[in-house]
Please model this.
Amino acid sequence: MALIIRKYGGTSVASLDHIRRVAWSAASAKEKNNQVVIVVSAMGDETNRLMQLLAEITPNTTGREIDALLATGEQTCAALLAMTLESLGQKAKSFTGSQLPLLTDNIFSKARILDLPTKKLRKTLEAGFIPVIAGFQGVTEDGSITTLGRGGSDTTAVALAAALQADYCEIYTDVDGVYTADPNICPRARHVKKIAYPEMLEMAGLGAKVLHVRAVELAQKYQVSLVVKPFFNGNKQTWIISEEDVMENYIIKGVTLEKNVSKISLIRIPDRPGIAYQILSPLADAAINVDMIIQNASIDGFTDLTFTISKTDLHKATELINEVAQKINALEVQAANNIVKISAVGIGIKNNPGVAARMFESLSAESINIEMISTSEYRISCVIEEKYGELAVRAVHHAFGLDNEKELSE
Amino acid sequence: MALIIRKYGGTSVASLDHIRRVAWSAASAKEKNNQVVIVVSAMGDETNRLMQLLAEITPNTTGREIDALLATGEQTCAALLAMTLESLGQKAKSFTGSQLPLLTDNIFSKARILDLPTKKLRKTLEAGFIPVIAGFQGVTEDGSITTLGRGGSDTTAVALAAALQADYCEIYTDVDGVYTADPNICPRARHVKKIAYPEMLEMAGLGAKVLHVRAVELAQKYQVSLVVKPFFNGNKQTWIISEEDVMENYIIKGVTLEKNVSKISLIRIPDRPGIAYQILSPLADAAINVDMIIQNASIDGFTDLTFTISKTDLHKATELINEVAQKINALEVQAANNIVKISAVGIGIKNNPGVAARMFESLSAESINIEMISTSEYRISCVIEEKYGELAVRAVHHAFGLDNEKELSE
Model:
């Protein structure tokens, strides 16, 4: 007998027919002598409907009421699914975040989980019920309803799996897991059956739209085995598990392309201690996230500084940097957004010193110039001209032997 | 400074525009240095929408999940109204039944209120907030969401008024209060400014669709002054208050006509102790409510028994009574649903012995035959042939001097 947490996203519960299918599937897992806890998102575009109501009211409002409003979407879905399970002869019970309780801080709209007592849930499971949890929501100590922000229902599911020490956590979604690259860019991309948490974090952070970083981080922290499955199409699935459980047949697990990148360069600035801080702290104050930073070698006490930010921040950042440039007497400020960031991700990187070289070589073979480079334990990233982005993905994918007819075995 | 509970029904909050109007009105009451607590129903036909979802799932379900589903309607509305109040510069905070908490028993779909602690609400009021309460809902001691059944939001409002010892409780609705008779039947019916609880109970129970009996009973029990106001049309209003505060200018406060009546007669049954019980107990077991009962004088140890039930129960009741009739050897069972019940209601009845006679006289003057009579402290009711129903209302209304151009002053 296994204890399984199953999370169904909005598209899996978009209509009563969908909910019926989810109920059948959950009931059959239960019949196989498992304990099953279900976590649901709001039905289809219900959250959008509520957001639209919100938008019609003036934005001059606190998060508390927004969260109280949005939380109804998941509550509705959880109650409907519990009823549907009952109609199939199962015992089921819905729980809101307040009812569990899933205790959070009071940062409305992106609350963080503080505690998740399991006594009530365990009793419910032992009495033979299928608990159906409204995802995405929690409650503060003084009883206000909170929501967990983006990826919230995934986070609820992983938190429950951790708290209940579940055998694993299934995430049903409308994609069939992780690929070695975006199949739209790289037709020879292959499905990935197993991926380690840090690989998934790099992939998720770089734009693979399978799971939110936060849910993966939580899974890593509590060593929750995650599996992503498509609810409707096919039976492919990707396990997200600990590094030790992923055999390293492949040095690189995937290649990602990030398009939301732009860069700013300050030309000929004084090379003195604290200069980088002086330049970048106004951006930090404006909550603009700086990703890669390169400072050239100093010549005659002067240097150049280049950094990347997301495209959406470019306008604001340029304004701020122009102010700084005047103060520090920079020669010039250059801004560009015709760039992309290509990354190779894999737990094999740290033990294989030649990986970076192989990546640079494959780009060079296609006459693609590398403008910036950054590396981490699990990732090598290069900033290149935007127009070469897709070609670069295919070149690197090929260079690391990821192209194949067969599915990637690990 | 007054403490006022205001309840807005579904039609008053049918759209965001409606909610904005409600918010303006509540904010202006607050600006006049009052403390205001708002209770809302679900928006417009939201509850019907949820009921329809319910109906599409098989009816084989427990009340717990139905209540969890339905409660979202009021929660959504409360959060939207609280936001709208904030957008007007007011401090506002929404509360679900679970958040108050409004504690109930666990009879889902028609839970009864057990306790309503006010500590949290008082703190919220003292901090200058307008609390916006999701009506119609409560929570069991072990945290399950319950709903209060028909008239639930009115009941929430009255319960809050009682618990907070509010100065009064305003019920905003789509009718402009109580009339001396249904204006569609009796064009000379007049608006009533003040009515005593027991009068209102008789009126509500007999079909005046202004307030649910349960809310009025609760108001009477805790001596909560209620006022019913139309939200959109005009400024008429009806106060529902204690008997002592209503001056008895009029013996009769109103005349009601109940059409959902049918009767069953058992002819020639043995007149022995316990016979009525033997006949009526199968109806009680089947949850069929018997209203009026008449037993004729005994002749040769035999008698006839006639009773009224609602039309909707006639079929089932006739079946049950036919069985009983065989057992006790009744000569015949007669059923009829071409009858109505006309009632005169007023606290003056108990002190004016001639009231019944005047009512009978006015019916007789129109050649209307009275088939059954029942009286209580505040009401005289006659069963008559259906076709005379509306004529009878006008005749009795006239006989008690209720016809008038001017509005009834008390």
